[in-house]
Amino acid sequence: MSKLFLVSLVVLTVTFQSCGSSTFKNITYSYRAKIPTDWNLIGEIKTDSVKNFSSVEWTLPKLISESSGNEIENSIEIYAYKNAGITNIEELLAYEKQKWHTFLLDVDITLLDSDNTWQIVNTSKVESFDHKSKIYLIFKNGICYRVQYVSTPDTFDRNLAVFEKFFDAFEIK
After folding, report:
1. N or C: which end of the chain has fewer CB within 10 A?
2. pTM of the entire structure?
């Protein structure tokens, strides 16, 4: 009887865990990610064969901004692309930096491993929107990956652990 209860408990635990998320896969760019069911898909380009990229973005559950009192939806995006001019992680970092250097207020860039991953935390200001983001840049198998979390500066820490858990489960084949 106790073995049956234990088996039932294990089955229930697995069922509850699988109901809480789904797996997003992109076969062309060889990645997968676990997505909680309370995230909203807001945009997806599976494969743009002309510009050689894919993009998918979700919003996280709404938060109330402590500074403004407004509802805020932070987002997470996976952007994967092929660029013949990029052959290593350093070139990927240089390419990405030139796109956003003009509106950066603060940036902290850390090499996570010598092979293929940079971690970037930055605070930026664009017209009418200050934001803080954490980005992982990965170069693997000739593909550039940008996995990015974007928030307001005052909600950044509140969803950072959610993003880290998401990134820890992110897989490149």
Report:
1. N
2. 0.81
